[in-house]
Amino acid sequence: MSSPSSTTAPARVPAAVLAGSAFAAVLVAAVIGGAAAPLAIGDPGAVVRWGTLLVRVVHDLAAAATVGLLLLAAFLTPETTRTNRRLTATRAAAVTAAVWAVAGLVGMLFTFASLAGIPLFGQGYLMQLTTFVWDLEVTRVAVISAALAAVVAAGAAVARSRAAMAWLSLLAVLAVLPLALAGHAAGAADHDVAVNALAVHLVGVVVWVGGLLALAVMRPRLGDDLGVTVQRFSAVALWCFVAVALSGVQSAWIRLGSLGGLATAYGLLVIAKVTALVLLGYAGWRHRRTMAHRLRADGGDAAAFLRLVLGELVVMGFAVGVAVALARSAPPVPDTAMAEPSPAELLTGYPAPGPLTPAAWFTTWRVDWLWLTVALVMAGVYVAGWLRLRRRGDAWPVYRVVLWVLGWAVFVYATSGGPGVYGRVLFSAHMVMHMAVAMIVPLLLVPAAPITLALRALPSRPDKTWGPREVILQLVHSRYLGLLANPVVAAALFFFSLAIFYYSPLFDLALRTHTGHVAMMVHFLLSGYLFVWVLVGIDPGPKRWSPLLLVVILFATMAFHAFFGVVMTSGTELLAADFFTRLHLPWALDPLADQQRAGAIAWGVGEAPTLILALMVAAAWVRTDRAEAKRRDRQADRDNDAELTAYNAHLAELAQRHRRSAEAEADRREKP
């Protein structure tokens, strides 16, 4: 067994190894890919060109460290009465988040100087910066991300509860997402696919790199709990590896265009990143196969673990540096605008589909990789949980599995099939997609009881840390869900958000922008799921209202929904007029007539789900009455029908009182 001195290294060593590797890699990769080459027109100078790369390395490493430290504090490491690991990691995250925020703002200054072709703080720089910083997407998202990082820094400096650490880790991950709207992805011809791939890639990288760095930095404080913490992180790292690999392949293919692009300088850097990913995958396999188990059995293997982690950090730093240089290098497929784009391509980023025929609803497809991935993951995780129960000998109704998979299949059709394709350019098709996602899909998903399955399939953690099962329990029993799951609140969210969305600029924003479209889809699905869940859900959660009140809530909501459809059907003012009038589809209906058809769809499609929901509420009512009757029968068997005996005794006492009262009244009348 190694001595403690041989296994204890200063906490700053892993960070220095990661940073040193990243800085060295970005310098070499920038020379190979030309990321810092002088610009032919409007060159801002060497300070801006090289400063942009170096500051971005600091930014990315600080973001990863922040996410990793907060995830370690909230979900991975055990705590005892003699340790203070979570608070230590959270306070360290406050420092790295502050560095992240500052680096983000400094990087924004360099980026604007590069775009404007002016040296940093050169003549006219500040005036142009204050004028255009919010108008340019690349600088706007940098400011938003830096602001969120500053909020994380402030929160981590004062947070003491595990719940606060968990929310801060989520906010830190969200702060990374706006960066996907900048860089090569934002200028790609297939904009939505590129942005989605980059967003998944960024999240996977910061969680993976940051988690490993946090493990290495906090290793001396973990002691005997190092093994279990490594084992938990290994599972997270596997998901990150898959996400980074798949999204990286998709992003690289968009930028390379063909295998011939690998022969370019950009392609060589891509090959270098792929090589690093393969090496990291092998190291992760070593962690899962041997190292984590050996650490749990014998803490003396901490020295071998440290050597392996430092090697991984070298490779990760190399990959981060190459990625930063790639983001500033010219790809084989340039970020140029489409030649003579149609109005539909200008407004949506996609070519206009052909005429909408009955067959086109089923034959027209354009895969939305984001929602297809979400559907496959959700269906796959559910089926895996079901199989785990079967292997354990526990029963789970097959019809629930069928409902869950069918629900996500309908979701894929609504987002990638005819409704999703034509919903980009036709109000009526958009409403079909909306009704499918918000009303039909939840009717299939909610009866599948995914929360109940997760609670039965997922293992619990004996050391009181928050694993997936514990997080689910925290959420379903939280005060926030208790508020949202109030049937009145859920119904209000379902209906009023519908009206606000369509009769405000949010509708136009969702039609024109990728971010707005994604937010719209998330809201449609979650608000519909919440509404159906509070009515007929069987998963654990806040106390259910009586079926009679739920029926009242259901029909009141559907009455408002029908009113919304009638108003839209009879309306004479075109919604999102600037968008629909500029499409100029030769085969489409008049935009106002199509809007009125959308209102009729909203009105008509809501009838069938309402009837199904009413029947499901009635069935739940019957089941509740039967369960209550069985409960009372069992209680009667246990106590010899004490409740009925007490009730009969109460009736007998009332009858006796009545007789005495009647006799007294008769005696009173007989007296003169």
Topology order in helix (H) and strand (E) letters: HHHHHHHHHHHHHHHHHHHHHHHHHHHHH
Judged by helices, strands and strand pairing, the structural class is mainly alpha
Tell me, rounded to a whole number, the average pLDDT: 87
Give the biggest sheet: none
Total helices: the number is 29
Strand content: under 5%
Question: What can you see in these coordinates?
Answer:
By secondary structure, the chain is mostly helical. It folds into three domains: 7-327, no CATH class; 343-631, no CATH class; 640-670. It has 29 helices and no strands. The chain has helices spanning 4-7, 12-33, 46-76, 85-116, 125-132, 137-158, 162-176, 184-187, 191-222, 226-256, 265-297, 302-327, 343-348, 360-363, 369-392, 398-416, 418-422, 427-445, 450-457, 468-476, 479-484, 487-502, 505-512, 514-536, 547-570, 577-580, 591-605, 607-638, 642-670. It is globular. It starts with a helix and ends with a helix. Residues 1-9 have low confidence and may be disordered.
Topology:
Elements: H1 4-7, H2 12-33, H3 46-76, H4 85-116, H5 125-132, H6 137-158, H7 162-176, H8 184-187, H9 191-222, H10 226-256, H11 265-297, H12 302-327, H13 343-348, H14 360-363, H15 369-392, H16 398-416, H17 418-422, H18 427-445, H19 450-457, H20 468-476, H21 479-484, H22 487-502, H23 505-512, H24 514-536, H25 547-570, H26 577-580, H27 591-605, H28 607-638, H29 642-670
Pfam families: Caa3_CtaG, CopD
Subcellular location: Cell membrane
Protein name: Putative copper resistance protein D
What are the key terms here?
672 residues, mainly alpha, 3 domains, 0% strand, globular, disordered N terminus
